[in-house]
Amino acid sequence: MRLGSSGDDTCGTGNLLKRNLWGEGADKRAHHNALERKRRDHIKDSFHSLRDSVPSLQGEKASRAQILDKATEYIQYMRRKNHTHQQDIDDLKRQNALLEQQVRALEKARSSAQLQANYPSTDNSLYTNPKGSTISAFDGGSDSSSDSEPEEPQSRKKLRMEAS
Predict the structure, then answer these.
(1) How far apart are CA 122 and CA 124, in angstroms?
(2) Bridge-partner residues for 134, per DSSP?
(3) Domain of residue 54, CATH code
(4) Domain count, the chain
(5) 137: in domain
(6) In Å, how far are 26, 29, 46, 71, 152 from 33, measured between CA atoms?
(7) For residue 128, what is the enclosing H or E element?
(8) Which of 96, 117, 119, 127 has its CA 20 to 30 A from that of 156?
(9) Can you give the residue range of the structural domain that contains 71?
(10) What pLDDT, in 10s, does the model give residues 66-90?
(11) Closest CA to 99 of 47, 44, 151, 162
(12) b/e sequence 77-87, b meaning 16+ C-beta within 10 Å
């Protein structure tokens, strides 16, 4: 028995082929739709995550454009804040280096004074500083009149306190 011998292919392979091609097309379309839905869900979740990361938008309903605008503002604000903090860190490092230098100078002066104490001189280790005040080698050259008040470093920067 030959199928479609008369050119009439009502039950033959032609219809079967058309059905398979149509079925494959539907499968491809369904697969593409599923991938597209997954992509849109990922974008939606990413916007929700971004919205929740911006303090001024947390828990609020906002459009995607608002989320992007506020996120941009927040990033710029944080960059400025980080820059300010980095400047504060650099200032504190400089202050720390100066203080360490002062400590080394004072330790050197103390050891020098201890050597002079072993070999007493007639002036009892008193010196005159450039301002004309008499100082001891042990006080580090402070021109302060009171020994009870700690001296503030002149280059000290007051840090700003920001509410977070």
Answers:
(1) 6
(2) 128
(3) 4.10.280.10
(4) 1
(5) no
(6) 10, 6, 20, 31, 71
(7) strand 126-128
(8) 127
(9) 30-104
(10) 999 999 999 999 999 999 999 999 9
(11) 151
(12) eeeeeeeeeee
